[in-house]
Each structure stands twice: as C-alpha cells, then as structure tokens.
Predict the 3D structure of the following.
Amino acid sequence: MLFDLDLIQKTYKEMPAKVDAARKALGRPLTLAEKILYSHLWNGVEISDFKRGKDYVDFAPDRVAMQDATAQMALLQFDTTGRKKVAVPSTVHCDHLIVAKDESKVDLKKAITENEEVYNFLSSISNKYGIGFWKPGAGIIHQVVLENYAFPGGMMIGTDSHTVNAGGLGMVAIGVGGADACDVMAGLSWELLMPKLIGVKLTGKLNGWTSPKDVILKVAGILTVKGGTNAIVEYFGEGATSMSCTGKGTICNMGAEIGATTSTFGYDQSMSRYLRATGRAAVADLADGISSYLTGDDEVYANPEKYFDKVIEINLSELEPHLNGPFTPDLATPISQMKEAAAKNNWPTKVEVGLIGSCTNSSYEDISRAVSLAKQVAEKGLKTKAEFTITPGSELVRYTIERDGYLDTFAQIGATVFANACGPCIGMWDRMGAEKQERNTIVHSFNRNFAKRADGNPNTLAFVASPELVTALAIAGDLTFNPLTDTLINEKGEAVKLDPPSGDELPSRGFDVEDAGYQAPAEDGSGIQIDVKEDSKRLQLLYPFAAWEGTDIKGLKLLIKAKGKCTTDHISMAGPWLKFRGHLDNISNNMLIGAVNYFNEKTDSVKNQLTGEYGPVPATQRAYKAAGIGSIVFGDENYGEGSSREHAAMEPRHLGVRVVMVKSFARIHETNLKKQGMLALTFANKEDYEKVQEDDTIDVIGLTSFTPGVALKVVLNHKNGSTDTIEANHSYNAQQIEWFKAGGALNVIRAAAHK
Ligand code: MIC
Ligand code: SF4
C-alpha cells in the first residue's frame, strides 16, 4: 500500500540540497549512511564533521514503528506526555503475542481471545493519537514496514531491534527502546551517538545453494555479536546490486545480531522493482529522480578504505552456505565443515524440526526457493525426516504463496503453517514435549538462537541458516548433510541428490491480498477514552520514578554478578512473560532470572545479604526494596545484547536496582538504562570485575559532580573489612545526566510539558 506520499515527496525535495551542503561542509564525498544522517539533522543543528563514536547528534527521524510487545510500554509513556497526536507518522503491529501451536487459524483465534484486553488497548490508544494499527494476523512488523512504509533515503526508528530490516530498502532504520520512540512521537529530537562506518564490499554473485542469509551469517562470524556496536554497516559492490531487495532486508535484519546501529544498501534496480511490485510505483519514480543521492558517492565505493572505519570484502561467488549456532548467532560454520564441528562439540546431529519464515526470511523469494526443494521430495521419492513449519512474515506474502500453490506443496511434506507472527522465534512456540527438556537440535531461518529462545527448552540447540538450507536439512533430518556434495537415500533405496534451489524474486502474477489487516486512526481522536482497569494483570499505568537524591549513592547491596552472556532474553525473558509487557510490576518477576550467578554458576539463585540465604533474583531484590536498600548488578561483555525491550531496564529501575556496571554494553540497552534514570557504568579496567565479591556493599562516588567524560569511583566494601576502589567509566552527555538527576527522561519531558 502507499502511505504518506507527501512525507516522501518532501524528504526527496529537500534531500539534494541537504546532501550537497554536507558534502561541501565536510569537503569530501559521502557514504550513503552519511547522506541519510546529514539530511535528517534536527532543525537548527549545524552541519559539522561529527566525530564518529564520540559525538551525540540530534536527528529528526521520518517515522516510528512499534510492535505490540514493546508498544504497550512506549504508549503508556506517551500517554503521560500530554500530547494530543503523534508528531510523526507512527504505526503499531500486533505480531509478538501469538502462540504457535496448532496452525494459523486456530492459533490466531486463540490469541485474539487471550490478548483481547491488550489488543483493545493498543487499538484504541492508536486510534486516539493518530497511529496506524496493524491487527493480529496482518504480519510481523518488519515485513509489513518493508512492504508499506520503508523508502530509500528515509530515516526511521522502531521499538524492536530488527527495525534495521528496512535497510534493505535503503533506509537508515534503527531499533530503540520505547522511551526513545515516545520522544520522537512527542515531537522532540532523537539523539544518537554518531556511528562509525563499516563498509562491506560484495564482489561476485550468489549462486547455487548460497543466499543473502549466508552473507550475514558470514559477517556475524567475522565481526561477532559485538563487532558492529555503534556502527552502521553499508553494503556495496556488484554483489549488492545483483541481489534482491528482500535479500538485502535479510542481511540488514541480522545486523542486529552483530550489535550494529543499523545496516543499509544504496538504491538500485532491485529496490525499484520491489517498490513497484508492492504498489509504490510513485515512490520508485521519485527515487529514480534523485537516485545519486540515495547511494554512496562513486569515490567512496572506489576507495572504501579512505571513507569507512573498517572494510570487509566478501566474494559471493565463493561464499558457502553457513549454519550459525548453537546458542549464539555468531558461531559460524560453513556447511562443508559441519560434520567435523558437530562431532567435535558433541552436537546432536538429528534434526528434529526445520522452521522457516520470521521477520528475517519470509519473502516471496525465500518461500519460492524453499518450495523448489519441497517439490523434489515427491519427485525424487524421498520422505521428509524432520518436522517442518512455516511462519509467513505478512498476510500479503501468505495470501500470495497460497494463491501460487506453494502452501499446498509444503503441505505435501507435512508442513504446519503458523500465523503471520513471531511465534517460534520468540519463545511463543508451544512445542509438544518441550517441557521434558531433552537435548535436541533444530534448524531455523530466524535470526536469534539464544538459550530457550524458540521453545523454552534450555537444551534445544538452534542453528540459524537460510530457508533453503533449513528445508534441505529438514528433508535429510541430519545437521551434517551437505546438499552440495551429499546424496540421500530415497524410499526405493536409491541414492539421489537435491538440485540447487531456484525461485522468483517477485511473484510473476503480482502480489495479492484480501484483507491486509490495517486499521486507519480516527481523524479526531480527542474523544476516545483509554481504559486501563485497576485490577488488570496485563496493563498498569506508569508512575514517575523518583528523582536522584542529590548525593553519592552509598550502601548498595550486590544483587548479582552475572557471568558470561547476559542478553536481554536473560534479563527479561520473552515467551510466557510477553503477556506482562504492559504491566511493569508483574513482568518484574522475571528480572534477571536467566542470568548466571558468577558465585554459584546457577541461574535465578542469588544470596540475600540480609538473611544469608539463596533465593530467586526478583524475590531477593524485592526484599532489598522492602528494606529500603538499593542494589547493583555487575555484568560481563556486551551486556544487554539482543532485543530493544526496555523492560530489561525498567524492571531493575522499578525494583530498586540503582546501578548496572559491566565490561561493555550493547547500544540499545545502555540507552534504555540511561533513559529510565539508572546509572550505566563500565569498568575502566576490565580485570576489576574479578574484585567484586559476593558479600560486597557498594558505594558510588563522584555523583555530585557528575560530568560528561569524567569517570566515577565505585568502592567495593568487602565483608572482611577491606575495600577496593575501582574506576567506573560512563558515556553520559549533559542531557543524559539531566535524565539521571530527574529520575528518568520522561520526568524531564513531563516537566517541560507542564511549564
Ligand atoms: C526479539 O527479536 O528479541 C524481539 C522480541 O523482537 C525484541 C523486542 C521485544 O523484546 O519485544 C527485539 O528484538 O527488540
Ligand atoms: Fe519477531 Fe523474531 Fe523478528 Fe523479533 S526477530 S521481530 S521476535 S520474528
């Protein structure tokens, strides 16, 4: 569908002059990322050569997208700002709360009943404040955004880390917490640390079994889960232009898994084709008119080392299909090495389930290529060994693939089609037998594979791969099957080889849909009432957090010293907890229950310093809160990796944790902590992490002169009477220090609104 053409027209009208001015001021050619950033500076911000990784810059994003699990908190916050309407076009998408169990229709119906209160809340608050609402069943936020809202050269933020998916259509699209979305919807600027720039030059051409997914699986292997932190990854080269737009979306989507601020591609014919196929020829025509502004300058791509902070080159002609995992998306194994890797690591090689789809890989092209393999099952007399599921990304794609007979072909290999929603990607998979917690292997085309993420079973090993490879491995039922070289034995006992996948970039008969699932907001929503019941278990109005007391913070108890990987899934688990995303107190009962306690290597078992007993993390923290004692959380590298969910910051805030101090943070989580008025600190010397002891009482010194760029001190008062004073770095700028002092960014906005 075509939305907001006037916004796109205006952006494109102003963009050339803005880009030219930036090029002139900086005195050099520009990358695409810079063109988009500099043409979206907040009104009044002067163009200057901002220092990457150092300067905070104010921007004016074109639009905001929110999904149901994060929109609840974002809109509860927006509701307290006193605004009448959102200041920029915004949308809400109902995709995260649908459990995948039986099949699409049954599951959707059940979700609509179970989540009625939340859907009604989101629908009416969207209606009131001028927000477009996509009903349950319409599809996954990022797919729906790509199909309807993303446009080359645009800038958007979204309350979901995979908002970056829209980079496939040449946007700078960034995942944020709800508080950031709230600012932009309230008409305020949006602040971002000027990102570093990583260039990825793609040479050659994808062929055979290799797909866009393998590009990002390879990049994740090179850069690791934190290698993209505070950087924009820009892809270019012949390999980029020869790839489909939706393939580019897959690559950008999984940029979240390397911690990148976002990823993007320059405007090209594949984007034009995609825009036209999705009913947006007018946007394509406009983009064609200023195409040189919608991609990096030639000089940049000719000499990338001069303009990017880091350059990676990948030859697509030689790239092998990969499988990444288990438990982390950056453990990359080329398929030819899987036999060896599985044996060495003792990974179960029997594939129990293959799952395709999700916001990452559910395009028409993905499905058509996977179907070309499913067809071969009957043609070659094979039998599919593993279970197989499909999670379409949108009703538009689902309707079209049904029309084109693809769902029938999948049905012939025994596939289950789940609702157009997140489902098994976010622990909303009611998988039969998962409660037995058996060690088992699954392969999927989603993006994340942290422990418990798909089915809640900590012993499920999930490997991420392209939909093509997932389909082949499900047919073979074997993780070590290399379809490039290996044969399968069919029902007649013959050895057969699968032909490489083939498919269509876009449907030859065009896309089709009966009801895409969109609800436009009321023209005048002022009369609409938002009801949140006092005794609701799912929704709770927010109260303002208390302001800083004006002194150093002393006498904090150690709540947990988290060991190793501590993602937002460890801090605030999804799956069964998603139902409490609109109720801060209830969801706080999952706080840090997945984090491993350094001192006993257990999850959800920490020492209560008041009683000396071990208990669950949330209960222990509630005991400190009841006693009026603050606490501190220590953590390892890349703390808060993964999701944008601000619950991972709001829960500790609500329960009385004052400080989170770690070796390093993931970008969105660090911002979320700051926004909620917490202290987010990093060890100046990472070895100091070792000095933290289980019975420590901790003081934070230097807050009365809290200044950007000046380290604070943290004193560890050990039980034996000795102390260690360690240096605590922080990245707060002057504005963020104000948030801390006020007790949270929202308190600052509210105070301004009431002046
Ligand atoms: C995810 O993929 O982890 C999620 C669920 O989409 C999250 C958002 C959330 O936790 O609601 C994300 O990536 O930001
Ligand atoms: Fe949904 Fe999974 Fe995509 Fe997150 S990554 S938006 S949970 S499909």
Remarks:
- The mean pLDDT is 97.
